[in-house]
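Newbie here. two chains, one complex. Structure please?
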Amino acid sequence: MQRRFPNRWMPYLLLLPSLVVVVVFLVIPSIQSVYLSFFRMSPFGDKMFFVQWQNFQNLLTSKDYLGSLWVTLVFAVCVVGLGLSLSMLLAVLLNQKLRGLYFYRTLLIWTYALSPAVAGVIWALIFSPSSGPFNYFLKLLNISPINWMTTPSVAVLIIILAATWKMLGYNIIFFLAGLQAVPVELLEAASIDGATAVRKFFRITVPLLSPTTFFLLIMNMLYAFFQVFGLIDVMTKGGPGNATEVLVYKLYKDGFVHFNTGLAAAQSVLLFVFVAVLTVFQFRFTEKKVFYS
Amino acid sequence: MKKLIIALLVCGLVFGLGFGKITLNFWHAMSGSRLGTVEAIVNAFNEANPGIEVVPQFTGSYAETLTKAIASVRAGNPPHIVQVYEVGLQTMLDSNAIVPLYEFADPDYDFGGIIAPILDYYTVNGKLYSMPFNSSTAILYFNKELFEKAGLDTTNPPGTFAEIMEAGKKLVDSGVCAGGISFGWPAWIFEQMHSYHGFFYSNNENGRTGRSTEVFFNQPFGVDVMAEWIRWAQAGVFLYGGREYDANQAFLTGQIAMLIQSTSSVGSIEAKANFPVGTTFLPRLEGYPRGNSVIGGATLWTMKGHSDEEYDAIWKFYEFLTRTDMSTKWHKETGYFPSTNDGVKKLMNEGWFSTNPNHLTAFLQILSGQKMPESQGVVLGNFVTIRDIVDSAVETAVQYKGSDPEKEAQRILDEAAAKTNQVLKDYVMMFGE
C-alpha cells in the first residue's frame, strides 16, 4: 500500500482542529449535561445537591413534560411530512423546462437563507391579531378575524406552516440535485410504454429519489426537534397556554429563564435519547426501502 | 501579522486612554426609546465625573439580562451593576453574588426621600438591598375617540369590573372596535388585583415575614377575578394580547378601546397613538376591600468581586440617578416613576402634570391606596417560573367556552396553585426556611 502521508502524525495533526472543536463544543458539554442531570442547582450555581434520578422522575411524571413531548411529536410529524411532500412536488415542477426558471427557483429556495428570527417576525406580522394583513383580508371577506394568540390549535398550525416554509428551500435544493440523477432515458422509456405523468412520478421518480428523501427525512426530523427554537421564541414563546411549547423550548425555559439547571440537563439527556432512538429506528426500518442505484 | 499588530495597537490605545479611570459595567434591559434615555443619563454622569466611566450595555430582555449576569458570575467575571426585574428579587437575595446597597451606601443619604411604595417594595427585613431605578405600576388606558363613537362618557371611564363589561359590550356591539379590553403582563395584573383589593397572594405575608410555601390565588377572591375575566372573554369584551407589551399594538391600532398596562408605556403610547388617550385607576371588583396597586419594574443590583474604590464610584452613580433633574427626565421620557419625592414636587411646580395628566394617574392611584402588608408586593422564590405558570393559567382560562366560569376558574387556578406550591417547595428545599 502506498503511504499517502510522509509523516505518520501528519493526518492526526490535520484532523486536530476539527477534533478540538468537536470535543470542546460537543463532547465535553454533553458529558457535563449528563453529570448535571443528577443534581439540583441554585440559579447562581453556588449550591448543588445530588438528587439521583429525581430530575428524570419529575419529568416523566410531569403532565407538562408529557404534553410537550406530544406537541413535539405532532409538530415533527407534520413538519417532516408536509415539508418533504411539498418540497418534492415543487422540486419536480422546478425540474421542468420553464421560462424564468431561475427566477422561480431563487424565490423558492431563499427561505432557507433567512434566519429563524427574521422568518418568525415575518410570520408573526402576517398573523398579528390586531394589525396583520391576514386578518385584514379575512375582514374584507366578512369573516371574523382569528386571534391565533388565544387559540392553541391555530397557533400550532401556524408554527407548523412557518417551520415547514422555512425548511422548504433546503429540501428543494436537495431534491433538485437528486432529480438530476434520475436518468431521462428511463422516463422516456416509460412514456413510450404509455405511462401517465402521475405513474412515472410514483414508480420512477420517487423510488430513485429515495436516498435523498431518506437523508432529508433525518435532517428534517433533527430540524423539527432541535432548530425551531428561534421561530417559537419570536412567534409564541411557547404559548398560548403551553400549546406550542416543544421540548427544546421547554428545555430553554427551564434552563435559562427559570434557572433550573439540573432539570434542563435531564431534559437535554432525554431529548438526545429520543432523537437517537428515532434515528436508529429510521436507519433500521426505512433504509431498507431506500434504493441506492 | 501586520493586521494583528495594528489590532494590538488599537487595543492598547483604547485601554491606554481609559487608564486611571474607574470603569463600571452597567448591564440593563431598557429597549426602545428607553435605551436612549438611559444612555443620555449615563453620559451626563460620565461628563460630571471625569474619573469614572460608566459603560451601559443593553443585554436583552429582563430574563436574558439575568441569564447573562448569572453566566458572568459563574465565569468569575461579573459586571458591576445589573438591572434585575422585581420578580428576580428573591433570586438575587439568595444569590450570594451581590453586595447589599446598605453596605456601601453613604450612611448620611436620606432614603426617606424615595417615594414610599417603591422603598417598601424593595425593602426586605427593614433593609434596602438594591437601588430603585425604574418603577411602575399598572393603570387603565382608554381610547377617547372610540369611547365617544360608542356613546361612552370620556370623563367617567369604567371604574369597576361591571362597568368594564358594560362599556366593553357597548364598544363591541356598536361595532366601533373588535374587542373591549386587553392586558399586558397578565400574571402581573392578576397579582395587582390581589394587592389592589387587600389580599395576600401567598402565605407568610407575601413572603415578607418568611419564605412563602403556599399561594392563595386559588381562594375565592382569585377565582372571582378569573371568572370575571372568563365572562369578559366570552362576551367578546376581552381580547387576549400576549404576555408583555404585545397588547399595546392592539390598543394603538384601535382594535380594543381599553388597556391595562404598566405606566412605563405612557410615554410610548401617547407618542404613537393617533387618538386622544385617557388614563384612569385600575378597575375594582365590587364587594371587596381596598388595598393598593403594587410596584413593578426593576432595580439596580451591585455585584460582588470589585474593589472598594469601584463601590464608591457605584454609589456616586446611584446618587446621581436620584438627582431631581435626572429622575424627572427619566419620568418624562418613559412614564416610569421618578424615584424621589423631590422629583414629584419639581414636576408639580413645573406644571408638568397639568399639561400631561396621564403621567399623574399612577401617582394618584398609588398614593391614594391603603398602605398595608398586602400591597407591599410579593416576594417568591423562583418567581419567574411562577409568573409563567399563572400566565399559562390566564391563557387557558380565557379560552373557556362553557357555561360555568366559576368552576372552570377554580379548576384552572387549583392546578396552577398545585404547580406553584411545588416550585415553592423545591425552592425551600434548596435554600432552607
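Moderator note: The interface with chain B takes residues 40, 42-47, 49, 64, 128-131, 145, 147, 149-152, 237, 239-242, 253, 256-260 of chain A (CB under 8 Å). The mean pLDDT of chain A is 88. Thread marked as resolved.
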